[in-house]
Amino acid sequence: MRILVAEDDRVSSLKLCRALEKLSFEVEVVLNGADAWDRIRNGKVELLISDWMMPEMDGLELCRLVRARPDALYTYVIMLTSRDSRDDRLAGLEAGADDFLTKPFDSTELVARLNVARRILTMQRQLHSHAIQLAELHAVLERQNELLVERAATDGLTGLNNRSYFDETLRSALAAAERHDKLLSLILVDVDHFKTFNDSFGHQAGDEALRIVAETLRSTTRAHDKVARFGGEEFAVLLPETDENGARMIAERLRVAIETHHWVRRPVSASLGIATTRFPVPDAAQLIEEADKALYRSKSMGRNRVTHHLDLDPDHTPGPRRTAAIV
């Protein structure tokens, strides 16, 4: 243990230094409080034995400065003084002193008070070590929780968000659209003739086809769009702040990207159905039902095409756009 002695009386400091060295302590001596404070600020000092009365900075002021360092490791302070009144002791304790050693010091008393200091500093080091371990454990647990949340929201095959996460996202997005008077569109994407693809080439090839479709959807949509695996060979794409015309453009972009991918075994295409909110904003189940009906129309019309739910209404004419342009 390293001990810093702050004592302006050279005779007293020499006696104390020799006594400490005989006890196998590493000792440094300074002659005033200001020098002691410099040593403490610039290095690790576990134990300080400080005289009460010193030039430039007295022991009480030094003690207050030491205690004002909340982020530093604890420094145990023994005040070396000939003062023994109750008020003096209280003043020292209020300044942050841990113990007192009467001048001129007694060697036996010195050893006893150093043993107390050693026990307290040992416990302090253990507490500090435990705090570091707890912080590291907390960081590990935080990361594990993040991974668990991520896994709970992720489809294992495609790496997209899963249906459960998408349902929550859709409900939140619809609430935000209603709050901020914004439009929102939903695209459902279904891989055409996927069962026959599986039957012809096997489930591993089918899984690989789904991964390719998933990556195509992810790479073709905008950064703020949400893509999820909806179930089986069906996918969902949520388009915030996107009107009917913008959703049609994005859906057609997705359809073409899937169709023109370099498929190794045979061409793969997809049918897409779109639904766009209006005012009042429909709930999630209604929006999904509308997109699903539009998807069914695409499939019944020969597949590999895009249908908007409004196309099912023969009297529909496109309304004014109410959102930002498509990027």
What does this protein structure show overall?
The strands form 2 sheets. This protein has a 5-stranded parallel sheet, sandwiched between helices. Strands 7-8-6-9-10 form a 5-stranded mixed sheet, sandwiched between helices. α2 runs parallel beside α3 (59-67). α1 (10-22) links the parallel β1 (2-6) and β2 (26-30). The chain folds into 2 domains: 2-129, Response regulator (Rossmann fold), CATH 3.40.50; 163-312, Alpha-Beta Plaits (2-Layer Sandwich), CATH 3.30.70. The protein has helices spanning 10-22, 33-42, 59-67, 86-95, 107-152, 163-180, 194-201, 203-220, 244-259, 284-300, and strands spanning 2-6, 26-30, 47-51, 76-81, 99-102, 184-191, 226-231, 234-240, 270-276, 306-308. With 327 residues, the chain is α/β, with parallel strands linked by helices. It contains 10 helices and 10 strands. Helix content is 50%, strand content 17%. It comes from Singulisphaera acidiphila (strain ATCC BAA-1392 / DSM 18658 / VKM B-2454 / MOB10).
